[in-house]
Specification:
With about 90 residues, the protein is mostly helical. Helix content is about 55%, strand content about 0%. About 0% of the residues are buried.
């Protein structure tokens, strides 16, 4: 029978995911183009949250607060705890 519309049911999952990834990357870049950022790879570029934060700023029109990066001094107490409590 004739197919009406595209459901993707006959397309393998990895192909649908690739199309969705490409489409979403283009959508994100269309918004980030207002600033100075662009995504290359959707997954790796959004991994640390900086580009995602920039996208949220562009979409909301607001400057969002960034948490300060941890310093070695703030990590030292955690490191000491991990090295002294290794278990049995």
């Amino acid at each position: 029978g004739a197919r009406h519309g595209w459901s993707g049911a006959d397309t393998p999952l990895h192909e649908r995911e690739a199309v969705q990834k490409k489409t979403f990357t283009k959508w994100v870049n269309s918004h980030l183009a207002r600033g100075t950022c662009r995504l290359g790879d959707l997954y790796s570029d959004l991994r640390d949250g900086r580009m995602l934060l920039r996208l949220l700023e562009v979409l909301s029109g607001e400057q969002l607060v960034r948490a300060p990066a941890p310093t070695m001094g703030s990590l030292c107490p955690l490191w000491g705890h991990c090295t002294h409590h290794r278990g049995p």
